[in-house]
Amino acid sequence: MKGETGSVVGFGELLLRLTPPGRKMIAQAQSLDVEVGGAEANVLAGLAHLGHPTMMISRVANNPLGRLALGTLASRGVDTRFVSYADGRMGLYFLEQGQGLRASAISYDRAGSTFASSRAEDFDFAAALDGARLLHLSGITPALGMDSANAVMEVAKIARSAGIPISFDGNFRPQLWAAWDGNPKEILTEIISNADIMFGNHQDISLLTGQRFSGDGPDRRREAAQAGFDTFPNLRLIASTARHVIDVDHHRIAARVDLPEDSAQTGEIDVTGIIDRIGTGDAFAAGVLHGYLEGADVMSMARAGLGLAVLEHSLPGDMPLFSRDDLAAFERGGRDVRR
Ligand SMILES: O=C(O)C(=O)C[C@H](O)[C@H](O)COP(=O)(O)O
């Protein structure tokens, strides 16, 4: 078996998300809505909807919950031939959706999941990457434990030696690192040393370089990106969002893409009436990667990332499901019914 030529390949965990409906707290829940997520899978689903071939490498539990996760991913247009079943359990997370000034909160129940208990040798990375166009990774997988961290470092090395570019989204999750006393700086540094594209803002870059970036706005962001390029000379593109949270339902966001010799920052968009903020970072990554795969200029990449992120705020669930037409309609600015 080998992967499909020209695919964007992701490696990471598929999770089930359980959310009390009606923005209830978990303590009040009598039922739970189910969604399927996972940072890398979300990016692949977003790219698949924009017309790019995508493929996931993962392991899910050999039970109905695992079949739900795999079936959902496949129904989103992602090639799942390298997602296998194994004994164990699915990782879960619970989302308490906030309201107004009450912030949302995530609790994980994923320790010892089928994926987190897997090791590098449980995956056929070389076959899956054969002919791939890009490998997408996130900082969540290495935060699951040393076996997962080693698996990410292994797949990154295989991609690099095959000349396949790697994109990496920081997705810093303090709860996961704290659960096993992992050293994010050391492990993420090793992974990013193999990457070409990084999604991360000035805080992520501070964590990695130990530098602090003062001031506000575009200057601080350029300074941080420059520090990223200086520390990781392999990086060719750094992308980030700037988010001002007004309340749970109202954020202002702008997008930025830096190349070593160029940069672009969009204006801020007021996003009101937010339905679901989870997955918007992954939607941003999918939008920027869409631009990158299309050979777009730096501002078009930033705009595509921002557009997909803004649209994702309107959709329940973790995965962006927007077509090129949806993105184009958003960019044209028409907000009335399309008929
Ligand atoms: O938390 C995890 O481990 C997951 O993978 C679940 C979610 O699907 C992503 O976290 C969404 O990520 P954002 O786009 O940054 O909101």
UniProtKB/TrEMBL annotation:
Residue ranges that the Swiss-Prot or TrEMBL entry lists as coiled coil: none
Alphabetical UniProt keywords: Kinase, Transferase
UniProt-listed InterPro entries: Carb_kinase_PfkB-like, PfkB_dom, Ribokinase-like
Any one GO MF annotation of this record: kinase activity
The keyword Iron belongs to this UniProt entry's keyword annotation: no
UniProt xrefs under SUPFAM superfamilies: Ribokinase-like
Gene3D superfamilies listed in its UniProt record: 3.40.1190.20
Domain Carbohydrate kinase PfkB: residue ranges: 8-311
Transferase is among the record's keywords: yes
UniProt record similarity statement: Belongs to the carbohydrate kinase PfkB family.
PANTHER family: 2-DEHYDRO-3-DEOXYGLUCONOKINASE_2-DEHYDRO-3-DEOXYGALACTONOKINASE, SUGAR KINASE
Name listed for the protein in its UniProt record: 2-keto-3-deoxygluconate kinase
Organism: Aurantiacibacter atlanticus
